[in-house]
Structure formats: structure tokens, C-alpha cells
Amino acid sequence: MSRYTPPEQSKAGQVFDIVVVVVAIFVALWLPLKLGLAGAAKSIDALDAKTWEALGQNPTMAAIWEKLGYTPETAHDVIQNRFHYVIDWPTLIIMAAVLIGYFVFLFRASDREYRDVINEKFDDK
Amino acid sequence: MTAAVETAQTTTIHGDRVSLLRVLGPAHVWALGVGIVLVGEFTGWNFSADKGGTLAALIVCWVVGLLYTSVAMIDSEVTSTVAAAGGQYAQAKHIVGPLMAFNVALFLVFAYTMLEVSDAILLGQTIVAKAGIPDMSYNSFIAATIVVLAWLNYRGVLMTLNVNFVITAIAYVSIVILFFSVSPWTQGAVLKLNELVTPGNALPYGWIGVIAAFQFGIWYYLGIEGTTQAAEEVRSPARSLPYGTMAGMITLLIAAAMTWYVCASLMPWEYLGITPYPLWDAGKLTGSPLLENLLFIATLLAALASANGCINDAARAWFSLGRDRYLPSWFSAVHPKYRTPYRSILFLLPIALAFAFIADLNQAITFSILSGVLQYTFMSINIMMFRKKWPLGTIRRGYTHPFHPLPAIVLFCLCVVTFFAIFLGFGSQLSAMVAFYFLISLWFHFYRYKFVRRGDQFTMPWPKPQGY
Fold it and tell me: To 5 degrees, how large is the angle CA B278–CA B284–CA B289?
């Protein structure tokens, strides 16, 4: 197999590639944060009666909350802020398909590149 | 130890061949691994209580400990054989192929950069909470932390890891002191586990909450695999890397168990699940000013040690990408005086700052966990391919892990569970992260790869892999 000689990349090309990577990082990771799409999917189950008993706290727990500086009113939003685990099957299936597709692409494309590497490395000897 | 395994690759600076310095021993490897991870006891693991309750946090502490034991076993074998800067990146390059290596390096960079971001946020929030000044911003503390640690890394790896060794040891000892100060063998005096974890609240969401808790259970140990990043700077990789990694894992398992027991016995699960600094709070709740101040200082030190190690590891992974021309070769420069990958350190600095200023602690932690789990998924498949392409006896291994393929299967299954756990509550972040890796992979495969030299990717003195 003939030895592959890659093109030399100009300085402008290197700068362009760096910009592409930085933009990809910020679009994919920073944008969801900025748009409020990331983070825990929780919501508050509000209670009318804001007492330690209504919040499900026994005397030991209540004493600790008070030591931490909370009252039943201020602790309400902390205690009642809950996850609601409902499995949205279509979303789950799409997500699983994307993950599997990503890994399949990774391994298949990597293998094609790897064969070039091995052929060049070992055919040189 | 073969000479080839110890071979460090070099970079040309002004016509001189310059390589990373081989100055580290097993203690530095331990400090790098535990230093990065120990902050997980000081913050982050407790968010698993938020997702599943206090008992779920304990269950995932053990089960995820099994995941990481598998990671450490697998990593020790592959790294002691493929000892090159970049760690898992170099492994992927030799075993799977360039595109996988490119992705693995990005997993490493983002796992460590987001971990560094989390550390800086924790440090800022802890200082602001201690100051007790309303409306005080923690951004200046975040900026100072990231910039000063980047400068330390710029100046040299030996100094960086010597600092890490000392501050990690102090932070670890503080957990041990806290544990023995609260009479762990007696319930009722200080610890009140029976009254705080009751049959009614131990698993508030049932078993689905236990699965959901896997997400932050990862945080107990995330980063231990970072020991391999120092492969080119360790004097004896075949001895130091497995020894340092395994010792680190044992250290962390003990710390995680002690941390859970003390925290679960001192605060209600709803509070434990949201506090940014559970061990400092535990110190406060003992009523001892000495313990409170000790845990305050230890929280800061753990965050510093972790961020310090993360900058070290992320920069080395980025440096490796530049050296192999997967990214512009400009990044592959080694500082002529300090012998550090200084351009990579400087490039990642503003990215860390940007995310530290906008992300919440649990968002930054989730980004880091996601990259980590993608990497562990790769590792479970990688070891299978490694054993298949070079069966035992065909190449010299520094360490051979037992029970193969059981650790790989366990690791893969636990990764699948963790992906599902992240979907439960943080699904949109999972989508964003995978979309990013997918797009950047297309960019690499169809465009960037043309700048990569083919045969030069394979630097190990091994025979041709079986099946090729």
C-alpha cells in the first residue's frame, strides 16, 4: 500500500478548524444551558398546610431543619420539589436509537480508518 | 517492562525534540486519581439522594463502586500495555481506530473540563456561604481558581501533582476525622440514622428512584481513570499505573462508605439531596466548630485538588489530539522551559470559565458524568477488542486483569443503566451531548481526517492485530 501523505494545513485553515470546534462546543453544550433546556426536570407539589407534620418530617428531622435555618414555610419548596418519573417511551426509544446509531457509526467508521492505519503500518515492513 | 512501552513521544520546538518529563511515581498517580475524584465525596454524590432517596444513594455507592472496580481493572491492563499521554485516547487509537480515539479524547476533555467547572462552582459557593454576605457573587472566586490552577499547570507537572498529593491527603484525613469524631459505633448521641432514614422515606420513589440515582452515583468515583493520563510522565508505567489506580479505588470506596454513613445520619434526605456541600454541613450539624471549620477547609482543598488534576488531564488529552493532527498541530506544542502542553492548557481555560459562569452545579456535573459514561461504554468494548486482536501471550502486558470478560460485561450493563438514569430527569442534556459528539464525529471523519498521517498512528511495537 502506498504511504498516504496528508496535505499541509495552512495557518488560516488551522484557525478555521479551531473556530469550528469552539462553535460546536458552545452551540451543543452552552446553548441548552442558555435556553434553559438543561438541568433537572423537577416540579413543586404544593401543600396548603405548611407544617413539619404535613411535610412528612418527624421531630428529629424538624429539629435538624431548624438547626439549618429553615422554617416549615422556607423548607416547603425544598421538600416538595420532586422528580416525577414518567417514562415517555417515544422519547426514550428515539434517544436509545440516537445513542446506538452514534456508537455503530463510531465503530464502523473507526474500523475503516483503522484498516488504512494497519495496512500502511505493516505493509511498510 | 519493554523499552517500547516506556517510549515517550516528542514534539519539535524550534528544531529541538522536546518530550514530557518522566518524573512521577505511584504516589503521584494515586494523588492524580484520588485528587480528581475525592471532591465527589464533598459534593455531587448527594444529588443521588435527591433522585432516589438516602438508601438509593447507598445502593448506587456500592453498585457504581463495582462499575469503577471494573473500570480500574480494565484500565490497568490496557494502560500498562499502552502507556502514552492521552490515556484512553492512545488505547482507542491502537485498538479501535482514529475516529474512536478522537471521540475518546473529547470525552476525556469534557469530562475533566466540566468536572473542573463543577469544582470551581463548589469552591465559589462554599466561600460565599461561609462569608454570609447577601448577594455576594462567587464569579470572582471561580475565575481566580481556574486561572491560578491553569498557571500552576502551565509551570510544571511535578509541582502540580506534589501540591495535589498534599491537599488530597489533608481532605481525605478530614473525612476520617469526621467519621471517628461522631462515634460511628453509637446511634442516638450524634448520629440519628434510624430516625432520618425510615421505611417510609428510604426509597421515596421506589426502585425507579434507585435506577435514577445511578446518574449521580457516578460522581462518587468519576475521574479515577484519569491516572492513565500521566502514562508518559510516570517513571515505571507498568508498576505505577495499576498500583496507583487500584490503591486509589480502595481509598475512594472507604471514603464513600464513611461519607454516606455520616451524612445520612445527620440530615434529612430532602436537604442532603440539594446541598452543594454535604460534608461541610455534616461538620456544622455535629455542633463542633472545629469539625465545621475542618470540613470547610477540606471542601475547598478537595475542589482545588480536583480542578488541578482535571486541568492536567484535559490539557494532555487535547495536546494528544494536536500531536496526532486530529486537531490543528498548533496544540501539540510543549513549553520549551516547563515541558508542559501549555497551549492546550491556555486554550481550555476560557471554555472552563465560560461554562463556570453560566452552568449550575448539577448541570456541570451532568455534562461531566455524560462524557464519563460514554467513555466507560467505549472501555467495555475496547477491552474485548484488545483481547481479541492481541490474545494473551502475543504481546507483553504490564498487568493482566482477572475474570475477563466478566468486568467488561458488568461495566457495559451498568453503563446502559446509567444512560437510562440520566434520561430520567436530565434527558435534554443527554440529547445535546450526544448530538454534539455525533456532529463533531461527522466533521472529523469526512473532513479533518485527511490531515492525519495513517501509519504513524500506530506506535506500539506489537505484531499485526489478528483479523487484519
Answer: 140
